[in-house]
Amino acid sequence: MVAGGRVTLDGEFHRVDDAVLLPTPHRPVPIMIGSIGDRVLRAGLRGAAWWNTWFDWFGNSAEGFAELNGRISRLCTEVGRDQTTLKRSACLLVVTDPDAGERPRPVEYSAATLTDARARILELRDAGADEVIVVSDPIDVRSIRAIAEALG
Can you give the pTM of this predicted structure? Predict the structure, then answer.
């Protein structure tokens, strides 16, 4: 549909007859995959514009991201994708109130704090992240404002 075609689907839960997307997009719709599973990565890396990883998949550290990023580069090569054309995105957990208890904190990773969030983002950039998505804990207005102030 995004290329201007029409689609008919007779699925288990939905039926669509001769559907069309109007207006047709002027540029390709960028697809982001968020997985570390081999099957999804092998299928998705061929055409995705972006790859994203959640903080606990790489231990919330630049070293863990670099290791996982290397695996993504190798998989790109294996599926015939130029690895330099794939944008990389990482979610970084930043805790503003350790007593809020909104998210479990396994011992396998260390959450960023307001004090080191900027440095951790720069470390992820240096490890190959084109984008860092901050995941606030807790997720509330006070925390978001505090993170914004800390990042300047």
Answer: 0.83
